[in-house]
Amino acid sequence: MIAGPDLAGAYMEPTEFFAYIRRRLREYFVADAGEVVPRLEALDNARDPDGRFRINELLCSNDTWQAVVLHMIARADVILLDLREYSQRRRGTRFELTELLRRAPLEKVLLMIDTKDDVTPLTGEIVSIWHEVARTRSVAGELGELQILRFGDGSAAEMHGLFSASVGAANRCPKHATGKEITL
């Protein structure tokens, strides 16, 4: 999850709080561009003994978050970008959306909006960004492959749909293009 300071503050773990108290919170941050690749390579991607995937957090400074986003785009099998309450004023989210359209295979990108959101301004924004980046895209693909998912109250049906869309995107990911289903 990549989150702004508002969300990061809401999800502070006890270990991070105590690091803050001990004035050692800096150790949790990717604060220098030279740290980006080593910190990403050091992420623990092994499953827990019960089969669940681990959650890795990377806290980033204003100078490093964009580089981390770009590296994460390159590494990810599936990318879910939450565009609920999106507007052009959210420059960080606009940067992420622009770079996804520029760099990512669109079949592995899922955009999430609220059931109440008007999709027309968002699709207009996406088309506008697409025209900006189409000449500089690093991978082939058509905009028609982009999936926008409506998500409301998080009902069981919505969670099942999100899970199914994620598995479908992972199966279409070039890393997994063997024609086999991925076992989760």
Number of DSSP strands?
5
Reading side by side through the largest sheet, how are the strands ordered? 3-4-5
Number of helices: 7
Q: Radius of gyration in whole Å, from Cα?
A: 18 Å
- Straight-line N-to-C gap: 19 Å
Mean pLDDT: 82
Number of domains: 2
Label the structural class: alpha/beta
Q: Helical proportion?
A: 40-55%
Low-confidence stretches: 176-184
Largest sheet entry: 3 strands, parallel
Q: What spatial form do the alpha-carbon principal axes imply?
A: globular
**Beta-strand proportion:** 5-15%
Sketch the topology as an H/E string, one letter per element: HHEHEHEHEHEH
Keywords summarizing the entry:
7 helices; single chain; 5 strands; alpha/beta; two-stranded parallel ribbon
In short:
The chain has seven helices and five strands, in the order ααβαβαβαβαβα.
Question: What is the element layout, followed by pairings?
Answer:
Elements: H1 5-10, H2 14-21, E1 29-30, H3 36-41, E2 59-60, H4 65-75, E3 79-82, H5 91-103, E4 109-114, H6 119-133, E5 147-151, H7 156-172
Parallel strand pairs: 1-2, 3-4, 4-5
Helix pairs in contact: 4-5, 5-6
How would you characterize the overall build of this protein?
The protein has 184 residues and is of the alpha/beta class. It folds into two domains: 1-75, no CATH class; 78-184. The chain has helices spanning 5-10, 14-21, 36-41, 65-75, 91-103, 119-133, 156-172; strands spanning 29-30, 59-60, 79-82, 109-114, 147-151. The strands form two sheets. It has a three-stranded parallel beta sheet with strand order 3-4-5, with helices on both faces. A two-stranded parallel ribbon has the order 1-2. Helix 5 (91-103) links the parallel strand 3 and strand 4 (109-114). Helix 4 (65-75) runs parallel beside helix 5. The chain is globular and about 50 Å long. The model is unreliable at 176-184 (pLDDT under 50).
